[in-house]
Amino acid sequence: MRKLSTERMRVAALDLKRQIKPIRRQIDAAIKKAVDNTSFILGAGVSEFERNVKEYSGARYAVGVSNGTDAISLALLALGIKHGDEVVCPAFTYFATAGAVAAVGATPVFADIDKDTYNISLQSLKDILSRRKNIKAVIPVHLYGQCADMGQVLSLARKYGIKVIEDAAQAFGAEYMGRKAGTIGDCGAVSFYPGKNIGAFGDAGMVLTNNKAVAERLFILRNQGNKDKYYHSLLGRNNRLDAIQAVVLDVKLKYLDDWNKGRGEVACYYDRYFSSCAVQIPFRAAYSTHIYHQYTLRGKGSGRKIVERLHERGIDARVFYPVPLHLQECFKCLGYKAGDFPEAEAAARHVFSIPVFPELKRDEREYVASQVKDVLES
Ligand SMILES: Cc1ncc(COP(=O)(O)O)c(C=O)c1O
Q1: Are 21-253 and 256-377 equal in CATH topology?
Q2: In which element (H, E) is residue 370 found?
Q3: Which partner for 293 in 121, 170, 271, 274 could form a disulfide, CB atoms 3.0-4.6 Å apart?
Q4: Domain ranges of the chain
Q5: How far apart are CA 110 and CA 69, in angstroms?
Q6: Which fold has domain 256-377?
Q7: pLDDT reading at 2 higher than 70
Q8: Closest atom, ligand 1, to C-alpha of 93
Q9: Confidence band (pLDDT; 50, 70, 90) for 307?
């Protein structure tokens, strides 16, 4: 048994310098090439990355876009969701899932979550679909890097004739029964925000779909509704992917599976370490792999207080997310109140996430685990 360091360390939530250092030359060369050919918006760099994402994910079509939020909005528009339609989202997710719905003039309708996986509760979804007649789509979120129960979501969606948009922002590379996250519903939205498991050097995103007609609309919608230049067949938006982001991401794509594996190894270490602690470790659903965008624990007390104490010990722990969406000020107009979604509210109170990136050093993860245990037990 190695001796644990008792000295106070600093452990970042994510250290991108460590990720970039070994691939820096490749990235610099890719950026240089993009600058040399001055094709900065769409163009060859973006098409090449879209081709490689299709190959990696198995999606028939991949459409590079400006960010993950726009990826969701564009998917909604391409699937015909419009002003006044209702779209179900889990109440416990990042704001953008529901923000993207509101951005196209549709109304988010919140569902509770499953207490183990933190993904959408099938019972809650079923209740909503049987009560409300104006629901046109559902957005299951693959929170923290593990897929929602897509088979069940799809069968409910088929029964009620609604569209399914996967929010795969946190789960690019995870698999639901052997199929990549984002390729299972009508569309999948991916975020390449810098802190994601594969991140750009700025904002970037992708929409995946297997439907040719939907893909054709997406290509038009992301580019001002241009079918041919200056001929606007749809009311589109400026949601294009920058070529420089695409070439950076194309270099990184080759390493994604290794990085996700590295996250899994850190997670396994934590699982073993916390097996004897009074804390709920991440649940592994039999139907999905987990790529640990976050390693999220749940204790009995306040997640925020635990995070404060870990900060005092130099560990950049976080709470994703402290306020469920139905209680956010911006969604007050929807008329929800505390108590509407007990599982989402409980998760927001109790969860906390600890550093899990693949380059985390052995002494760092040992320090994080020992400090978490100490905080939980003191
Ligand atoms: C669950 C979820 N949905 C959507 C988004 C939005 O992605 P982006 O930040 O690229 O717009 C994010 C990213 O933060 C996310 O975590």
Answers
A1: no
A2: helix 362-377
A3: 170
A4: 21-253, 256-377
A5: 17
A6: Aspartate Aminotransferase, domain 1 (3.90.1150)
A7: no
A8: 1
A9: very high
pLDDT of residue 256: 98
The answer for 277, left when phi > 0, alpha when psi is -120 to 50, beta otherwise, is beta
Secondary-structure class of domain 21-253 per CATH: alpha beta
Q: Using alpha carbons only, what angle is made at residue 25 by residues 24 and 26, rounded to the nearest 5 degrees?
A: 90
As given in the structure block, the two tokens for residue 246 are: 């695409």
CB atoms inside a 10 Å sphere around CB 92: 31
Beta bridge partners of 272: none
Between CA 190 and CA 291 the distance in angstroms is 14
Residues in the chain, how many? 378
Average pLDDT over residues 32-47: 94
CA of 364 from ligand 1 middle (Å) equals 27
Comparing CA positions, the residue from 184, 183, 201 lying closest to residue 192 is 201
Please state the pTM of the whole predicted model: 0.97
**What pLDDT, on a 0 to 100 scale, did the predictor assign at position 6?**
56
Task: Return the residue matching tokens 């104490």.
Answer: 309
Token reading at 131: 């009560």
For helices 212-221 and 68-78, the axis angle rounded to 10 degrees is: 120
Could you give the CA distance from residue 5 to residue 127 in angstroms, rounded to a whole number? Answer: 51
Query: Closest Cα to atom 10, ligand 1: which residue?
Result: 68
Separation in Å, CA 28 to CA 36, 205, 248, 254:
12, 21, 9, 16
Ligand 1 is surrounded, with C-beta below 6 A, by 67-69, 93-94, 96-97, 141, 167, 169-170, 191, 193, 203, 205
